[in-house]
Design goal:
The chain is 50% helix and 19% strand. The protein is of the alpha+beta class. α1 crosses α3 and α10 crosses α12.
C-alpha cells in the first residue's frame, strides 16, 4: 500500500484466475437462462455461442461482481475505514489471466484529541435592563391594539388606512387584497405615502411603485409594479393600558407585576441563549484551530452539497424558483469550501469528544423532539414518526441532540471570561 497524500490511499489488487473463471461461469449460466436466441429453446443455446455473442455483457457483469468484493476484502484485511467510492484504474482483464486493478480512495482520519476541558471563552451572564422590559411590554401592547374606524375625510400623515391593492402589471403572481398602511411610517414606501396623502376613501387611482433591491419579499424586490389602489377605511389605533387587566388578558397572571416578572425572565432566557450560542461557536473555533488532521475530500464535498441545498431551500422559501437562477457551481463550491472544512472538522471533533465522554441522545430526548415536530406539523405523533423513520431522519435527530449535549458539556467545562 502506498500513501498518496493526507487521507488518500491506493491499493493494487489481484483477483486469482480461479475466482475469475468461477464468476465467468456463473454469469454465463445466468445469462443463458435469460436470453432468447433464434433456433434455440430458452436455456438450450450452446455455452460457447452465449460467450461469443455476449462477450461484452459477460465481461461487464464479472467486473461488477468481482471488483467491489475484492476491494472490500482487501481494505477489511488491512483495517481501513473507507470514505466514499474508490476510483478504479489500470484495469487488466485478459483471457486466462487474473484480474488486476488499482483502487484509489480516501480513509477516515485518525482524530487524536488534545485538551478540550477548561477552554477559555468570552462569556458573561446577560442582564435585563428596564429599557429591555419597557420595549417588550410596548411591543406586546402594540400587538393588542384596536383599530377603530373613523368618519371619511382626506387622508393625513400618520393615519392608518385599509387599502385595496390590485396589481395591473410588473409582477408574475397577481396581488388582489386588502392591506393596512400607516401613511408616513418608516416602513411605508414613499410611493404609497404620496398616493394616499390627501386622498379620500373610495377614490381609486393607478400608481407605480418601484421596490428596493433589498426589499424583504423577494417576489417584489427590484421590480416596478403598477397597482390599482383604493383607500377604503380610515382607522385610529387605540392602545390598551398597561395594567392588571392587560396582564390578565394575556394569560394566567394575577396582576401586572406578575406579568412583568414573567416577561423579564423570558427576555433573560432569550439573551442567555444567544450569549451561550456565541460562546459555543467560539469554543468550536478554538477546538478546530487546536487540532490538525487531514479531512477526506468526500466529507468536504458532502458538506458543501448540504450547505448549498440548505441555501436553495431558503431561497425557495422566499418564493424564488432556484432553477431560474444562473448559478456558477464551481464558484459556489469554492466559496463554500472553507466553511465546509471547518464544519466537517468540528463535527469529527464533537463525535470524538462525545464518544470519550459517553454522551449520547436518549430515546426520551428523541421522542420529545418527534413530538415537537408532530405538534408543529399538526399531525399525529405516529404519523410523524413513520415519516421520519422512512427518511432516516430519526438518526439525524439523535445525532443533532448528541452534538448539542456535547457542546453544552464543553460550555459547562469551559473557563468563562468576561
Amino acid at each position: 500500500m502506498s500513501t498518496v497524500e493526507d487521507c488518500k490511499r491506493s491499493l493494487e489488487i489481484e483477483i486469482p484466475l480461479e475466482e475469475v473463471e468461477r464468476a465467468r461461469e456463473r454469469v454465463t449460466s445466468s445469462l443463458k437462462q435469460r436470453v432468447r436466441l433464434p433456433g434455440f429453446r430458452p436455456g438450450k443455446a450452446p455455452t460457447n455461442l452465449i460467450q461469443s455473442r455476449f462477450e461484452s455483457e459477460i465481461r461487464s457483469e464479472v467486473l461488477e461482481v468481482l471488483l467491489p468484493q475484492a476491494f472490500r476484502d482487501k481494505v477489511q484485511a488491512q483495517g481501513l475505514k473507507v470514505v466514499g467510492t474508490p476510483d478504479v484504474s489500470d484495469l487488466k482483464f485478459e483471457a486466462g489471466q487474473p484480474i488486476r486493478f488499482k483502487a484509489e480512495f480516501e480513509i477516515a482520519p485518525d482524530v487524536e484529541l488534545g485538551e478540550y476541558r477548561g477552554l477559555p471563552v468570552k462569556y458573561q451572564e446577560p442582564t435585563v435592563t428596564d429599557e429591555d422590559l419597557d420595549k417588550r411590554l410596548e411591543s406586546m401592547r402594540e400587538g393588542k391594539a384596536d383599530y377603530v374606524n373613523l368618519d371619511p375625510r382626506p387622508i393625513e400623515n400618520g393615519d392608518y388606512v385599509l387599502v385595496h391593492l390590485k396589481t395591473l402589471a410588473g409582477v408574475g403572481e397577481a396581488i388582489d387584497q386588502d392591506i393596512q398602511i400607516q401613511v408616513g411610517a418608516e416602513e411605508t414606501l414613499p410611493g404609497f405615502n404620496a398616493a394616499l396623502l390627501g386622498a379620500s376613501p373610495d377614490e381609486t387611482k393607478e400608481i407605480e411603485i418601484t421596490y428596493p433591491e433589498d426589499y424583504g419579499g423577494n417576489k417584489l424586490a427590484g421590480k416596478t409594479v403598477r397597482f390599482e389602489l383604493t383607500p377604503k377605511t380610515l382607522r385610529k389605533k387605540e392602545l390598551p393600558a398597561l395594567d392588571d387587566e392587560f396582564a390578565k388578558d394575556l394569560g394566567d397572571y394575577q396582576n401586572f407585576d406578575e406579568l412583568k416578572e414573567a416577561v423579564r425572565k423570558t427576555i433573560f432566557h432569550e439573551k442567555q441563549y444567544v450569549a451561550q450560542q456565541e460562546a459555543k461557536e467560539e469554543l468550536i473555533d478554538r477546538l478546530v484551530e487546536a487540532h490538525s488532521f487531514p479531512i477526506p475530500e468526500a466529507y468536504v464535498d458532502r458538506q458543501i452539497e448540504n450547505q448549498v441545498r440548505a441555501q436553495l431551500r431558503e431561497i425557495a422559501g422566499q418564493g424564488v424558483d432556484p432553477s431560474t437562477l444562473q448559478l456558477d457551481w464551481a464558484k459556489i463550491k469554492e466559496k463554500q469550501r472553507d466553511k465546509a472544512l471547518r464544519n466537517v472538522k468540528a463535527s469529527l471533533l464533537m463525535e470524538k469528544i462525545s464518544e470519550r465522554e459517553g454522551i449520547k441522545a436518549t430515546q426520551d430526548e428523541v421522542d420529545r423532539e418527534v413530538q415537537r415536530i408532530a405538534r408543529q406539523d399538526r399531525e399525529a405523533v405516529a404519523v410523524t414518526r413513520a415519516k421520519l423513520e422512512k427518511d432516516g431522519a430519526t438518526d439525524r435527530i439523535a445525532s443533532h441532540i448528541q452534538t448539542q449535549k456535547t457542546l453544552q458539556f464543553l460550555f459547562d467545562q469551559s473557563n468563562k471570561q468576561a
